[in-house]
Hints:
33% helix; globular; 5-stranded mixed β-sheet
Amino acid sequence: MVATAQKHQLILIDGHVHLHDCFDIDQLLTSAWENFQRFSGQAGDQENFKAVLLLTEIEHQKWYNKLADLAQNNNQYRVSQGKTWMFHRTQEDLSLYTCNSLGQGMFLIAGRQIVTAENLEVLALITDQNLEDGLPLDVTIKAILSAEGIPILPWGVGKWIGHRGKLLHKLLEDRNFTKLFLGDNGGRPVFWSRPVLFKQAEKKGWRILPGSDPLPLASESCRPGSFGFTIQGSLSNEEPGKDIKEMLLNPLTPIQGYGSLENPWRFIRNQLALRSRKNSSNQLINK
Length: 287
């Protein structure tokens, strides 16, 4: 099903992937593969690399479970519908392998995006455990660690300022949390200066994990794989989630970001589209 793992292999990882209901999954996976292949070429290893999407599902989304069910049922529905990408189980519940007829493939690793009581987003990477929204930030982080996930505090437009920014500054000074990461994303516009918290986190030894963070707009389905990071190592076919977790938690593992920040025109267009979408939803609710 998958090529044998090698000791020193380029691994490309998108650390913040949503499978929104408005996305065509086959189109998303095809775009992701093309993005991974392009950046692997820039890294000098277009033929021999592994690709990984770290999913960060919002509470109501159950895409990982749906795809796992397809894998369990031998993809019969997708074959009958003429779909391009098939799904296969690994030896761990939190990961799947997907491939097309050309033998191009990548791993999907389960994870969650959680909104805390303070309205801060926290990612729980590499876990398939149910985690509750609406709890205080420190409680949420402890719950993720208890679920053996990796907690990530992702950058977001307007979400690291004011009271929430002060909370993050305070968290960075808390010696009780030693395994946290911050997250950058490809939606951050190129004209936006690098967040001060990144530098503060790096001084503490925390690291930054980039991801595409596609918005809930159909046009964003092409973004997964376009912004992320690379590591070098051995990724097994049986337990890829476990392997990635071990590499990320090893402070000696070099992490190299790749991809470009958002151009101003697309950033503004997306923000207007999101606002229009929100206004339309509010009008429907008020009818």
